Amino acid sequence: MDLLSDYIALTGAIVRLAGSDKIVHTYAGLAIYVLAQVALRTRRASPVAFQIVVALELANEVMDRLFWGSWRWSDTIGDVAATVFWPGALCLLGYYRRTRWRIEEAAAKAVRDQKKALVAKSSDSSRRRPVPDFAASR
Fold first, then answer.
1. Domain-by-domain residue ranges, the chain?
2. What SS3 state is found at 69?
3. HSE value, Cβ hemisphere, 13 Å, CA-based, for 127
4. HSE on the CB side for 19, CA within 13 Å?
5. Neighbours of 130 (CB within 10 A)
């Protein structure tokens, strides 16, 4: 057998064990995403890990296309959506959380800087030289 037929036979056996190809695509997408993050040592919500999921899913669909001889668009679109949905959702959530954290950090820094400026201003006013009392010197 050739590599393409072996690949299709392997994926078919996995689908038969799981019961549904959409479940296999969902779990495969999540597994690839997590393994890519571990292998690359990236933070959560890594866009690179998401790109790896997309690339491997597209390669899987190309293998299906080569085996079947034509695109099966309803199956292909459903497979791609099932595979990239949760990794994409995790990436978007992580991006949102990082953006919100940066905004909150910037606001907290601005408050700290204002407090430092007020403390510096009040300490400068307490260091002023005393005003001489001209009446007492006569």
1. 3-125
2. coil
3. 6
4. 0
5. 5
- Write down the residue that tokens 């993050």 correspond to: 37
Q: Write out the H or E segment, with its range, that includes residue 109.
A: helix 73-126
Choose the weakest-confidence range: 34-43, 72-81, 115-124, 126-135.
126-135
pLDDT tens digits, one per residue of 122-133: 776 656 666 666
Inter-axis angle of helices 73-126 and 47-68, nearest 10: 170
100-116: pLDDT as tens digits: 999 999 999 999 988 88
What phi, psi does 11 have (nearest 5°)? Answer: -65, -35
- Single-letter code of the amino acid located at 80: V
Closest to 86 in 3D by CA, of 49, 126, 114? 49
Locus of tokens 């006569």:
138
CB 61 within 8 A of CB 11: no
Write out the H or E segment, with its range, that includes residue 39. helix 21-40
Alpha-carbon span 96 to 122, nearest angstrom: 39
